[in-house]
Amino acid sequence: MFPVRDAEALAPEVVRLVVEAPRVARHQHPGQFVIVRVREGGERIPLTIAGADPQAGTITLIVQAVGLTTRLLCALRPGEAILDVTGPLGAPSEVEHAGRVAVVAGGVGSAIAYPRAAALAQAGNELVTILGARTGDLLTLEDELASVSASLRVVTDDGSRGRRGVVTDVLAEDVEAAAAGIAPLDLVLTAGPVPMMGAVADVTRPHGIPTVASLNPLMVDGTGMCGGCRVQVGGQTAFACVDGPEFDAHQVDFALLHRRNQAYRDQERAADVAPEPRPTLREAR
Length: 285
Fold this sequence. Notes:
Rossmann fold; seven-stranded mixed beta sheet; 285 residues; 2 domains; five-stranded antiparallel beta sheet; alpha/beta
């Protein structure tokens, strides 16, 4: 069992959990993830390690309630526990001094982007971060990303916070500025919904700007055994759990990834029932 030490609502249906997992906390690196199982007979789902405190023996997980298992996780209170936490899994991020780096995150992709962004900043890179969400109240980790970025620009679909539009509107302007020699853009890191990451790759590909996407396919065991997380990269099959989760975005078949992520949507909807008749963390507070 892995006790929950803290639980904080970050946005509607988004919760930050601090979980006691000493071994994972000691060995994790930016870009890695864990596989969690809430209860006996439950499904196994991957979650990015959004932070770790090796001295305290804790890791931070950010969970969006989109199905049965994530709703169970979001309902946990301090003192309760997660049945299984396996990790760290996946290949650590390559943290290099690239120069000027655009971090493009959408929705809870901020939880995926933040650990690598922090590591890139520590390595001496200048980060220009673009953070997007459907509405302002769904923005997460804005302060954390701002703390490691030279600039942070917010974009929302409805214009309730920051600029109205999508993250690629801002990225396209940065790419054009780089092409004109106004401000360099040496690397782009993107994390978030699959269509968004595909759109980011489409913006940077014509200009040859190196772009890395952190993929989020369906996953079961996290060790390359089940094959559920297979993706097409450069026309070759790769497994996100062991070969990734980060890949060259210009080589990823995002359309295929999106279709595979929809494969069990009917079953997920059928299983998505209220886990327990108790208030959510936000309602409880």
